[in-house]
Design goal:
Elements (H helix, E strand, L loop, with lengths): L2 E7 L8 E7 L2 E7 L12 H4 L1 H6 L8 E4 L2 E4 L2 H19 L4 E5 L7 H14 L4 E3 L1 H4 L1 H11 L7 E2 L6 E5 L3 H4 L9 H10 L3 E5 L5 H5 L2 E3 L6 H14 L12 E2 L1 H7 L5 H8 L3 H13 L3 E5 L1 H4 L4 H14 L9 E2 L22 E5 L6 E3 L8 H6 L8 E5 L3 H4 L3 H8 L4 E5 L12 E3 L21 E3 L15 H12 L8 H17 L3 H7 L5 H11 L16 H6 L6 E4 L16 E2 L3 H6 L1 H6 L8 E3 L15 H4 L6 E4 L1 H7 L6 E6 L2 E9 L7 E3 L14 H5 L26 E2 L1 E4 L5
Parallel strand pairs: 6-7, 6-17, 9-10, 9-13, 10-11, 12-22, 17-18, 18-19, 23-27, 24-26
Antiparallel strand pairs: 1-2, 2-3, 4-5, 4-19, 8-14, 15-16, 20-21, 23-28, 24-27, 25-26, 25-29
Helix pairs in contact: 3-19, 4-19, 6-15, 10-12, 10-13, 10-15, 12-13, 19-20, 20-21
Length: 742
């Protein structure tokens, strides 16, 4: 039987590595890194190999499920859409559009159909209750970037190929291969940096895999990043080390920042950070005096009460040390398609705003069109006009991934109607009335929309489907259009392709005006996301402008490059001022909301640090809850352990391998102890996404070693007030041994 070779972008984490997949008789026979891939050059982590397990997982849903008398039964797609049409419109008519909500998870970022068409369902619903995983891990970085540079995805990235000093705070790119920074084979790139004389410094409350590789590692108390960063900024001003470099003419607010951080001296913050004042000053001096240097921080700095301030101060440091938009410093990718900072008039724009509406119960402001996901339970529970009665979930499992999951699970049971698009019957979708299965990644074509805007090197890559779709299964974008049609009252029989044609014609008229007909003709034969991608590529910064630049990119050219690993568009280049989209056309170093929020950490500096706090952690094999159901990733040592420093274990009478009771306020869990010198004394680490012991879920392998749900311990009322991001780290806990049975 003939063996065929296929090339696919891995959809399982932000690294987006290129894969070479061999197929024989409709079965995957091998997966390895694609050596010719222009972006990842053959690198592969265990997750890529697990795509075979995911596709073949007997627990993965292939047909829709409808809940009848409390039990899920298989149904046809027609029956599922008919059930939704029967139950949904009367509820919207009776209670209004804001009685509905929709929540989307991070797998959608790796599915072009979900990411490009999810908004069509949200707009059809017309609700303000939009939630996503962004407020669990990244909204502080997006908000800070938006306020400074004018767009939510204008994120400054380390130019690791040329840097001489990389300071990593609250991130573990050796495990993640980047987060809000797409950098496959971080380990190889970091070692190359060290080989050319460069230096890697890590600041983290755990001696992570990245810290083990580093030239220096400093423990820091969780939640103290804002103090360290502010003191480093203060040192630059105090020691007259401020140099703006190439962006000097394009920066507003330098003096205002200097005044705002004046009180955050290294001596003032040292005890709170757990880092002595001399070390803080030395870090600032080294950053300022290294020609090519960059500061990078991620999840640990975002998922805390000062997440937006910490994210902002990282970029403030990069600006004031002369390393913004400079080779080897913090630079901006130039995406081939879908990047707002390459569209429209260069160098100026509307900027970003927040608070266009507010959560009904808590009053939390909208950020980037979303409300905090930690508001979802109370919006369902609390009676009154606008109480959420209908919920759509798309590729998400917030019962495990967001704080106070037990409260959310109880709230989901009170909904009048719930529809889930998901490949699994998991801890969240078990509450649904209808589950519509998504496609296996191997059944779907793909082009990354977001990650080229966050990539260490510019590129364009396309993945055709590897295997045929399950019989009768629609494309995911078609499912979303059908749901939108039902919401609008157009019925379950609406033709998704016709709906898409009509929507595209409207969009073309709005965007292309007199040239709309020509654009429609030029894209004839394409549907859905492929058609959107064709337009985005051809009108993007490298595009052929529909024939005006014959050498430019088209969808056909990018598709043709699949076998040779895509199209390399070169290293990062200086982009200021053209990429700025602020109203002033300048980098806004001192956004008023951020300066005002510095009053919180200034006041809290006198607050005593808790004796014991908990943080999460990331493992290369388990960055999403459903990965615990894949044999390739689940095998090996049990990873859901509570890492405890030996001094804390002795003080608390904890035994290695034994169970411990962990409590925070009224919430508690039990987890297995692992004594480790990796941890800073006073800090415990437990990974997220576990807790596969809830009734009704169908994740058979994961249930064999369910682990403890860290998020069941966390308070859903704790969040960064600016971004709405949940506080997942630095939370005070108590811990005690669980008595062993005889």
């Amino acid at each position: 039987m003939l063996e065929t070779i296929h090339h696919r972008i891995c959809p399982l984490c932000e690294a987006c590595c290129g894969l070479e997949i061999k197929v024989q008789g409709g079965k995957v026979t091998s997966i390895k890194g694609h050596a010719q891939d222009v972006f990842s050059a053959g690198y592969l982590c265990p997750k890529g190999v697990a795509l075979k397990d995911l596709h073949e997982d007997p627990d993965r849903l292939r047909t829709p499920l409808i809940k009848r008398n409390g039990t899920f039964v298989e149904a046809t797609w027609e029956e599922a859409f008919a059930e939704i049409e029967r139950r949904l419109p009367p509820l919207l008519a009776a209670h209004g559009r804001n009685a509905s909500a929709v929540v989307v998870g991070n797998p959608s970022a790796h599915k072009i159909g979900l990411l490009s068409y999810f908004g069509k369902l949200a707009r059809a619903l017309g609700t303000k209750n939009i939630f996503s995983s962004s407020t669990l891990d990244q909204m502080p970085k997006q908000l800070a970037s938006g306020l400074m540079f004018g767009h939510w995805l204008s994120v400054a990235l380390p130019d690791i190929a040329r840097t001489e000093l990389l300071l990593v705070i609250g991130a573990n790119p050796l495990a993640s291969n980047g987060s809000m920074w797409t950098v496959p084979d971080f380990k190889g790139k970091a070692k190359a940096m060290q080989a050319r004389g460069g230096k890697l410094i890590v600041i983290d409350p755990r001696r992570t895999e990245t810290a083990a590789l580093a030239d220096a590692h400093h423990f820091i108390r969780p939640g103290a990043d804002v103090y360290l960063l502010a003191a480093m900024v203060q040192t630059l001003f105090a020691e007259k080390l401020v140099r703006l470099g190439s962006v000097a003419a394009w920066v507003n607010g330098v003096e205002e920042v200097g005044l705002a951080v004046a009180a955050f001296t290294p001596e003032a913050v040292a005890a709170r950070c757990g880092i002595d004042a001399g070390t803080i000053r030395q870090l600032a001096r080294e950053l300022a005096n290294t020609q090519r240097a960059c500061v990078y921080a991620r999840i640990g700095s975002c998922t805390q009460e000062y997440g937006t301030l910490a994210s902002w101060l990282v970029d403030v440091l990069n600006v004031l040390s002369g390393h913004l938009d400079s080779p080897g410093g913090a630079m901006f990718a130039k995406s081939a398609a879908f990047a707002s900072n390459t569209a429209g008039k260069p160098g100026m724009g509307k900027g970003v705003s927040t608070g266009r509406h507010f959560a009904r119960v808590s009053g939390a402001p909208e950020v980037f069109g979303e409300l905090p996901i930690t508001c979802m339970a109370e919006e369902i529970e609390t009676a009154g006009p606008g109480q959420v009665r209908v919920l759509f979930t798309v590729a998400t499992n917030p019962v495990l991934s967001s704080p106070n999951g037990p409260r959310l699970a109880a709230a989901l049971d009170t909904l009048d109607f719930m529809v889930s698009m998901d490949i699994y019957l998991n801890e969240t979708t078990r509450h649904a009335d209808v589950i519509l299965p998504g496609l296996s990644p191997l059944e779907d074509f793909h082009y990354d929309l977001a990650f080229p805007q966050l990539s260490w090197r510019n590129h364009a890559r396309y993945s055709p489907p590897v295997l045929a779709r399950t019989d009768g299964a629609p494309e995911e974008w078609q499912t979303l259009l059908k749901l939108a049609a039902i919401v609008r009252g157009e019925g379950a029989q609406a033709d998704a392709n016709a709906l898409d044609d009509a929507q595209f014609a409207e969009d073309a008229q709005r965007l292309a005006g007199a040239q709309a007909a020509a654009v429609i003709r030029a894209t004839s034969g394409l549907k859905g996301p492929q058609r959107l991608l064709e337009v985005a590529l051809r009108t993007g910064p490298y595009g052929d402008m529909f024939g005006m630049k014959p050498e430019g990119l088209t969808l056909a050219k990018v598709m043709a490059s699949n076998s040779v690993g895509g199209i390399d568009l070169g290293e990062l280049q200086a982009r200021i001022p053209e990429m700025l989209r602020t109203p002033s056309g300048k980098v806004e170093l001192a956004p008023p909301a951020l300066l005002a929020d510095l009053a919180r950490p200034a006041t809290d500096l006198a607050r005593a640090a808790p004796d014991l706090v908990i943080i999460g952690r990331r493992d290369v094999r388990t960055n999403n809850s459903w990965m615990h159901n894949l044999p390739t990733l689940a095998k090996g040592p049990f990873r859901c352990t509570a890492l405890v420093h030996p001094d804390d274990a002795q003080r608390l009478k904890l035994q290695d391998g034994a169970m411990a009771h962990i409590a925070s306020g009224p919430r508690s869990i039990q987890a297995r102890v692992q004594i480790s010198t990796e941890m800073m004394p006073g800090v415990v680490s437990l990974p997220h996404g576990w807790g596969h012991d809830l009734p009704g879920a169908r994740l058979q392998l994961a249930a064999q070693r369910p682990g403890a749900n860290l998020n069941a311990l966390l308070d859903d009322q704790l969040r960064d007030p600016l971004s709405g991001n949940a506080v997942l780290g630095g939370v005070a806990i108590t811990m005690q041994a669980v008595a062993q049975e005889a």
